[in-house]
Amino acid sequence: MSTAVLDTPPAPEAPVQSFTVTLIIRRFDPDQDTEPRWQDFDVEMFPTDRILDALHKIKWEQDGSLTFRRSCAHGICGSDAMRINGRNRLACKTLIKDLDISKPIYVEAIKGLPLEKDLIVDMEPFFASYREVQPFLIPNSKPEKGKERVQSVADRARFDDTTKCILCAACTSSCPVFWTDGQYFGPAAIVNAHRFIFDSRDDASQVRLDILNDKEGVWRCRTTFNCTDACPRGIQVTQAIAEVKQAILMGKR
Ligand code: SF4
Ligand code: FES
Question: Strands, DSSP E only, in the chain?
Fold first, then answer.
């Protein structure tokens, strides 16, 4: 009769240590406040937690009136861009342990768009600029019946970077030109124009280039690179703007 040899049970893992972190959030309630005000919250968090988790914890356990947008919680929908320690980021992609937790973490709404409540701004001016650049395919002809519009790998690669945009507005609302001139189209609109201007299947590039060759178009860009630094998708925003400028001057390449 054989005897089963039992594996040695794995050593129990050390419990993950929690820590207390202070968030200082810029609050604004249009029904009560004449000016935004800062409010402190202490929260118990774990190293795997993100700023979005801290905001949920505050809302669910301390102050249900705290107002912010979020949907996917995984960096896809683009709804939770905010200023975290003075830098535009997605709350759902910012791990608290990656910030300096020995100091309070400052959280406020993105700049340059009308503040509605707490961390929420009115996104309509942002989306108005986006719509203006006609961010959709405009071909002059129909594909052959039953056929797709074909495109080479190289042609598809030409605009691959700008397809990644999730319209979070982190770039546009980090742009000092946009802060002082809300009429400027802003980096996100230009990125989304770029996505179609350089698409070989599209026939309306010149229309978009004419729209952006405006006093509030690409020439307002001062190449500060704030937009590229802010983009949570790693899009080379400043380069895309430069390519659109070049296409206006020299034609599309
Ligand atoms: S380019 Fe980047 S930062 Fe700007 S809206 Fe798109 S994803 Fe957000
Ligand atoms: S909640 Fe969707 S990107 Fe952060």
Answer: 19-27, 37-45, 81-84, 87-90, 105-108, 115-117, 120-121
Q: Which ligand is nearest to the CA of 88?
A: 1
Q: Which protein residue's CA is at the shortest distance from atom 8 of ligand 1? A: 168
**Closest listed residue to residue 18, CA positions, set 40, 49, 63:** 49
Q: How many angstroms is it from 96 CA to the middle of ligand 1?
A: 22
Q: Which residues line ligand 1 (CB under 6 A)?
A: 78, 165-171, 187-188, 191, 230-231, 233, 235, 237
Q: What is the pLDDT of residues 91-104, one digit of tens each?
A: 999 999 999 999 99
Residues having CB closer than 6 A to ligand 2 are 70-73, 75-80, 90, 92
DSSP reduced 3-state for 12: coil
Instruction: Kindly give the distance from the C-alpha atom of residue 52 to the centroid of ligand 1, in angstroms, as a whole number.
Output: 19
* pLDDT single digits (tens) 149-199: 999 999 999 999 999 999 999 999 999 999 998 899 999 999 999 999 999
**Statement: the pTM of the whole predicted model exceeds 0.90:** yes
Report the separation in Å between the CA atom of 80 and the middle of ligand 2, taken as the mean of its atom positions.
5
* Alpha carbons 72 and 57: distance in angstroms, whole number: 17
Distance of alpha carbon 81 from alpha carbon 84, whole angstroms: 9
Give 107-135 pLDDT, tens digit per residue.
999 999 999 999 999 999 999 999 999 99
What separation in angstroms does the CA of 240 have from each of 80, 167, 180?
24, 15, 22
Ligand 2, atom 3: closest residue by C-alpha: 75
Predicted confidence (pLDDT) at residue 6 exceeds the cutoff of 80: no
